[in-house]
Write a structure and sequence with these properties.
With 592 residues, the protein is an alpha+beta fold. The chain is 29% helix and 22% strand. It has 17 helices and 31 strands. The strands form six sheets. Strands 1, 4, 5, 6, 7, 8, 9, 10 and 11 form a nine-stranded mixed beta sheet that branches. Strands 12, 13, 14, 15, 16, 17, 25, 26 and 29 form a nine-stranded mixed beta sheet that branches. It has a five-stranded mixed beta sheet with strand order 2-3-19-24-18, covered by helices on one side. β13 and β14 form a beta hairpin. α12 packs antiparallel against α13 and α12 crosses α17. The longest helix is centred in the middle third of the chain and has 17 residues. The termini are far apart. Bound molecules: guanosine-5'-triphosphate (GTP), sulfopyruvate and manganese (II) ion.
Length: 592
């Protein structure tokens, strides 16, 4: 497959360490993948679903102890602890290599070592990068074949270069006490042991495309961000692109595939999906910021996905997809999850592999759900009905607006615009959101999650903020405008006030109009908030007073917020850029 010495040497080292019975290069051909699918079905690792209703689709269950990312077991192993910063777990690289090699040694005995050559980004694109993952899991191979571009061509493009990311995944015993997800940014290396769940083991995704790539971007002058990318087409056929960073399970896939409300569709508004999770962005020749989606598929949250909330995501899962930890509907050998429809199957197997009937469900106990709250689908991007024609081109799309957002029951208004880039970086750096099921641990706790990158930044977050400021200086007046949104304000009963989903288009339209200089705004203590009459409520069952209530900036609430941001900032010590400290002082003065 390759003559690249750095590749061959590393693979030899891996073989010696892992001691597989067999070695198989993955070429990404359907013939080879079909054999692996058959093998996985034979061993029970995967279940083939109804070929008529879900052609080429499979179900897989991970162990109940292994259903989400594990942030407390995730490490950035830079040589100096300071370089990992206060928000990452750190371990000395030599010590961690030894620990991990001791765990992985000999664990491929009796098994096959699969070698996956893959490209993040269209193969050969100047914005793309190469990775090689070795794994002992067919599930990982099949998911990587959807999520990335797997092909021998990747090795041709790499040639004899050493610019590629090493990824070792060993399933071991899926022992959560010995689970580690480790990034060695200075060595372009990732090692993941004792897990078989998505974000922990599909090493091209969070481990490479965010943790390693954010470090590379810092060194090389570009950005790797936890952002969806979408194109918004207006009735004149003009398309403007925006990128949006929301924490895990806070609505990126949904926004990326949004279908506008009927009255806007009839006028000719459309949304095109470029990416739903990760964005790599570089300054182009014309000085603007260009983004590509390095992935080739969607690893989306299943619960809550339905024809109404996200038609395009659901359509994407109708063929050649893999479902993880959803329920198996025994009536027709298809899948089901909470929120798919109002008809739970009378007979099903739940995500733990046990018989399930609707009466098992107890609203107050998430563990009685048929599908795990973080159950996922892995769907090829080509299946998406609204996939952008730019998706595969590799040149990237010019970004007009960057949007931050999170889940805040109170506090952040529906939408506001930063006063300028530096103020926008401040807003991103101070972002907070209620935690979700995408990571192990408590759900619903407000935590600071700067730029939605808290679990994904591969270096010191103070340096990361400075990198954002530096990019802004280079972009100058061509910099995208920065906004913040919050779809999740609740009333006193805990119900969401804003309808969300397709209706978020009403907010996107204001954002684009602000970029074009055609919409008005009111200046508040935190930035520019829309005049209520500038958010179009046509056909919506919402009165202007309700809208006003979620556009409101309550100084009292924000005084508390500013105090919390001050606490949050203390972590960064003298690595906190002085511009951000000044921004905090401005906020404090404004809310007095
Ligand atoms: P990751 O894949 O973990 O990065 O998640 P994501 O950011 O892509 O989140 P996703 O779009 O999958 O949405 C996660 C959950 O948020 C789902 O249960 C959605 O139903 C819900 N959600 C998404 N958009 C909205 C919205 O506009 N309003 C409300 N109330 N819920 C939403
Ligand atoms: C997230 O948690 O942000 C995801 C899913 O996109 S995972 O790939 O598990 O990280
Ligand atoms: Mn994500």
């Amino acid at each position: 497959m390759t003559k690249n010495k750095t590749v061959l040497e590393w693979l030899e080292q891996m073989k010696e360490l892992l001691q597989p019975d067999q070695v198989l290069w993955i070429d990404g051909s359907d013939e080879q993948l079909e054999q692996l699918r058959a093998e996985a079905c034979k061993t029970g690792e995967m279940i083939k679903l109804n070929e008529e209703k879900l052609p080429g689709c499979y179900l897989h269950r991970t162990k109940p102890n292994d259903v989400a990312r594990v942030e407390d077991r995730t490490f950035i192993c830079s040589r100096k602890q300071e370089d990992a910063g206060p928000t990452n777990n750190w371990c000395d690289p030599q010590e961690m290599y030894k620990r991990l090699y001791d765990i992985a040694r000999g664990t491929y005995k009796g098994r096959t070592m699969y070698i996956i050559p893959y490209s993040m980004g269209p193969i050969g694109s100047p914005l793309a990068k190469v990775g090689i993952e070795v794994t002992d899991s067919i599930y990982v191979v099949l998911n990587m074949a959807i999520m990335t571009r797997v092909s021998p061509k990747v090795m041709d493009v790499l040639g004899d270069s050493n610019d590629w990311v090493r990824g070792l995944h060993a399933k071991c015993d899926v022992d959560k006490e010995k689970r580690y997800i480790c990034q060695f940014p200075e060595d372009n290396t990732i090692i993941s042991v004792n897990s078989a769940y998505g974000g922990n083991v599909l090493l091209g995704k969070k481990c490479f495309a965010l943790r390693i790539a954010s470090y590379q971007g810092w060194k090389e002058g570009w950005m790797a961000e936890h952002m969806l990318i979408l194109g918004l087409e207006n009735p004149k056929g003009e398309i403007k692109y925006v990128a949006a960073a929301f924490p895990s399970a806070c609505g990126k896939t949904n926004l990326a595939m949004l279908i506008p409300p009927k009255y806007l569709r009839e006028k000719g508004y459309k949304v095109w999906t470029v990416g739903d999770d990760i964005s790599w962005m570089r300054i182009g020749e014309d000085g603007r910021l260009y983004a590509i989606n390095p992935e080739n598929g969607f690893f989306g949250v299943a619960p809550g996905t339905n024809e109404k909330s996200n038609f395009n995501a659901l359509a994407s899962t109708k063929k050649n997809s893999i479902f993880t930890n959803v329920a198996l509907n025994l009536e027709d050998n298809t899948v089901w999850w909470e929120g798919l429809n109002k008809n739970p199957p009378e007979h099903a197997i739940d995500w733990k592999g046990e018989p399930w009937t609707p009466d098992k469900f107890d609203k107050n106990d998430k563990s009685t759900c048929a599908a795990h709250p973080n159950s996922r689908f892995t769907a090829p991007a080509v299946n998406c009905p609204c996939l952008s024609s730019e998706f595969d081109k590799g040149a990237g799309v010019p970004i007009s607006a960057i949007i931050f957002g999170g889940r805040r029951a109170k506090c952040a208004p529906l939408v506001y615009q930063s006063r300028d880039w530096v103020n926008g970086v401040f807003i991103g750096s101070a972002m907070a959101s209620e935690t979700t099921a995408a990571a192990a641990g408590a759900v619903g706790v407000v935590r600071r999650d700067p730029m939605a990158m808290l679990p994904f930044c591969g270096y010191h977050m103070g340096d990361y903020f400075q990198h954002w400021l530096d990019m802004g200086k280079r972009l100058g007046d061509k910099a995208p405008k920065i906004f913040n949104v919050n779809w999740f304000r609740t009333d006193d009963e805990g119900n969401f006030i804003w309808p969300g989903f397709g209706d978020n288009m009403r907010v996107l339209n204001w954002i684009i109009a602000r970029c074009e200089g055609t919409a008005d705004a009111q200046e508040t203590a935190i930035g520019y908030v829309p005049k209520p009459e500038d958010i179009d409520l046509t056909d919506l069952d919402m009165d202007i007073d309700t809208l006003k209530s979620i556009l409101d900036v309550d100084k009292e609430v924000w005084r508390k917020e500013a105090a919390e941001i001050e606490e949050h900032y203390k972590k960064f010590g003298d690595k906190l850029p002085k511009e951000l400290r000044e921004q905090l002082e401005i906020l404090k003065a404004n809310v007095q």
